[in-house]
Amino acid sequence: MMAKISGRIRATCTLLAIFSVCTLLFAQGTGRFDLAGPKLQVRVARGGKVLPIASVPNLQPGDRLWLYPDLPPTQSVHYLLVAVFLRGTTNPPPDNWFYKIETWNRKVRVEGAYITVPDEAQQAILFLAPETGGDFAALRSAVQGRPGVFVRASQDLSEAGFEQARIEKYLSSIKLAPPGDSKALLNHSNLLARTLNLKPNEECFTRPVDQQYSCLTQTGSQTLLDDGHGQSVVSILTNGSGSDLINAASSTSLAGGGVYSAYVGAVVDLVRLTSGLHTAHYQYIPAIAFPEAEELNLRLNVAPSFHNPKSVIVIGLPSIQAALPPPLRPADTKHVTCLLKPSVVLPVEGAPLVFSTAFAHDLVLHINSGTPHPDIPLTADAFQGGLVLATGPVRRDLYFSGAGEGEEKSHPAKTAPAQAQATPAKPDSASEITGTIKGYWGFDPFIGPTLRLQDVPGHGWKLAADDLLIAGRENHLSLSSSGTACIQSISLETAPGNQIDAQWRPSEKPNVVDVTLSLKSFDPGALHLNVRQYGDFEAVAVAAQTYSEPAKLASLTLHAGDTSAFLTGTSLDQVQHLNLENLVFTPSALTELPASAHDDDHQESLTLTLPPDAAAPRFPAGEKYVAHVALKDGRTLSLPVTLAPARPVVTLLSKNISQQADSPIHLANPNDLPVDQQVNFSLRSLPPFPRTGQIEVATADDALHTYLSVANGGLVLQNPHTLLGTLDPMKTFGTSTFGPLHLRAVSPDGTTGDWLPLATLVRLPSLRDIQCAADASAPCTLTGTSLYLVESIDITPAFSNPVAVPEGFVGTTLTMPHPGTTGFYLKLRDDPTAANTVTMPVLVQKPPAPATAATRVSAP
């Protein structure tokens, strides 16, 4: 890269044929401003107040400047100091705005020189030129001939000085970090970068620890202004003389914005100034000033020449304009600073010159409270990332009182707990207050940002209501109080005198901290957290209870208008009750859900109901609530619930079940439905029944089900509230269906209503005849098919002496007592609770006779 740049310089020199300029630029080497120049002392007086130049960000008309050339007594070359005031790029300054100061003059060397800023002046610039014949006139002619160049030079010198001051501040401050502590290096580098608005070379932190320090503290600015390709932007710019290289760099994103723009733009124009401002006798070279108190320490990037063209050192002074206060702002608007810490830093940013210069001075923190408090002095410290509060008597008297007369008042954090010290009283109200940064920006007072503060220890410490500590795992919990900014440490006391530190960080919520606590080696039981705060001698104990792994709540379903809720999850047998908006639901039925292939836990469904006499809650559908589930061990879990739409509600008005005309069995239970018969029923719907709604009919075990709808002909709407249904069990379910049937309404969106009993499907045997002997005490024989459908037979409705039919019976005859005149009774296996009446002819077998056939006798 250096070879390419050198080639460009040589080519440009050939084209321009300006040997002197090319020689000078090529000799600049790296171009860094690291050559010490001559020193000047400057003070500024305004309104009866005098400030050193390091504390003056801007000049104003009428300011009186004291200039003193601090040259060594052995100075062999006489330097002429020329002070010039400028008034714009197109308006040359008059002759009386040029001040000639002969530095070798005895009076000047003893007393210095005084000049006054004239009205309408906008910039001020100084020249240090070797004495020659006509030197003053030549400088005045150069400025009056090209005032815009010097206006821009003055501005660029100021910008370059500001930026270089920020870089120097970073480099000097980062050396305070321990070289072998990678974490400290990174932390302080980030703080410096934030307060100084710089971008350190992030690649340094990818190197081994022993190399990070040297990487960050290299001489120069390449580690702070890096173009991302291993080349220093400043080095590239100041090593080239051709306008093609400078223009290309100026058009890059680095030169166009962010933290690079001011410095790069200033260096670009200073290079142009170096290559463009020259005469046969003078070559102008820039000097960047580093004010310290009243001294202007000058840095050059080119060694001055005392041969023609002689070097004229150009020095910029502060702009002549109204004061622009620093735009300080909080680094984090949510951050609360504890005033009780031994060392307090107010994290602010946005005004890097506050930290890299002495423009801001006499800074204080003004406490905004009802009781007047003395202001606390502040010191800008980029290394610590903000404004540091004084630690002297002002803070001690302000926040720590109560020591006996003659006793020294000290910060509790610096004193052993065993010593008697007073603790600040805890107020009843919240402990947060505010403080405003005030101070001076040069000669002018300014008011900075207002910050959030805490000046008493927090009180009312408690865990969040829904936080549970589970033994055997890592826990995350929320700890709150009236103020959390003064936390010194949080620990878990496992036994008297045995403490385990807990990790914590501020939460997004005000006055809340998020605590991480490992309980992997703990059993369930009682414990407590110790919260130690600055300004409080004794730790605050927060009692807590650890539990075993609790029930896991997956979801809660509650429909508008329902008195039952459905909870899904695991270990739901631990649930004691559920509280929703002061309504208490208690468990009524627990069922296990089918296992999922991707779920290791067996999910359960728990039905919870309100008391039988409780009215249906009037919760609107779509509203969001939080249900609190109380477990039997005293824990309470929270679960969000969104109220589901109201379920469809239908009631059974009537039904008609046809009996088999050719069957001798008369069903005693009107709800029994022979499987080969249809059932017609009517329903009443409270809300209008939608035409796309359905009625689901299913067996009690949900093994078989069907849907009746208007579309498939199973439903007919008599009107919006009355509907007629028809079910053919044999056609729908087949011959193996039996037992209770129930139905429910299904909304178009799939929401289902409560189940209603419809009928009990029964299968009937086919009874052919019954034959009995003439002797009434003799048994009879019942003949038929599908007799396995019979559970038992008796001749009395009480079934006092039944004849049981074995399960899986495949015979066609049964032996039974002689029936009475009213027939006999039969219980079906599909509904063994009903005693059904059987009326059929009885064949009486008479004694055998030669030509007499058996006579068929009908039972009454």
Written description of the protein model:
By secondary structure, the protein is an alpha+beta fold. The strands form ten sheets. Strands 1, 2, 3, 4, 5, 6, 7, 8, 9 and 10 form a ten-stranded mixed β-sheet that branches. The chain has a seven-stranded mixed β-sheet with strand order 12-19-18-15-16-17-13. Strand 23 (about 485-495) and strand 24 form a beta hairpin. Helix 1 packs antiparallel against helix 2 and helix 4 crosses helix 5 (about 145-175). The longest helix is centred in the N-terminal third of the chain and has 28 residues, at about 145-175. The protein is rod-shaped, with a radius of gyration of 50 Å. Mean pLDDT is about 80; it is low at about 1-30, about 220-270, about 400-430 and about 850-860.
Structure class:
alpha+beta
Question: Please, how many helices?
Answer: 13
Please report the total strand number as a whole number.
54
Note the gap between the termini.
126 Å
Q: What is Rg?
A: 50 Å
Question: Biggest sheet, in brief?
Answer: 10 strands, mixed
- Average per-residue pLDDT, rounded, comes to 79
Strand content: 35-45%
Residue stretches low in confidence (pLDDT < 50, at least 5 long) are 1-30, 219-269, 400-429, 852-860
Give the overall shape.
rod-shaped
> Residue share in helices?
10-25%
Layout of secondary structure:
Blueprint: H1 2-16, H2 19-26, E1 35-46, E2 49-52, E3 64-70, E4 79-86, E5 98-102, H3 106-111, E6 113-116, E7 123-130, H4 135-145, H5 147-174, H6 182-196, H7 209-216, H8 233-238, H9 243-250, H10 261-276, E8 282-292, E9 295-300, E10 310-316, E11 329-330, E12 336-338, E13 345-346, E14 348-349, H11 353-356, E15 360-368, E16 376-381, E17 386-389, H12 393-399, E18 432-441, E19 444-454, E20 462-463, E21 469-470, E22 474-480, E23 487-495, E24 498-501, E25 503-506, E26 512-518, E27 525-533, E28 540-547, E29 552-557, E30 564-570, E31 575-580, E32 583-592, E33 604-609, E34 624-631, E35 636-642, E36 650-657, E37 665-666, E38 672-674, E39 679-685, E40 694-699, E41 705-709, E42 715-719, E43 722-727, H13 729-733, E44 739-746, E45 756-762, E46 766-773, E47 780-785, E48 790-794, E49 803-804, E50 813-816, E51 824-828, E52 831-838, E53 842-845, E54 856-857
Parallel strand pairs: 8-10, 12-19, 21-28, 38-45, 46-53
Antiparallel strand pairs: 1-2, 1-3, 1-9, 3-6, 4-5, 4-7, 7-10, 8-9, 11-14, 13-17, 15-16, 15-18, 16-17, 18-19, 20-22, 22-26, 23-24, 23-27, 25-26, 27-28, 29-30, 30-33, 31-32, 31-34, 32-33, 34-35, 36-39, 37-52, 39-43, 40-41, 40-44, 42-43, 44-45, 46-47, 47-50, 48-49, 48-51, 51-52, 53-54
Helix pairs in contact: 1-2, 4-5, 5-6, 5-10
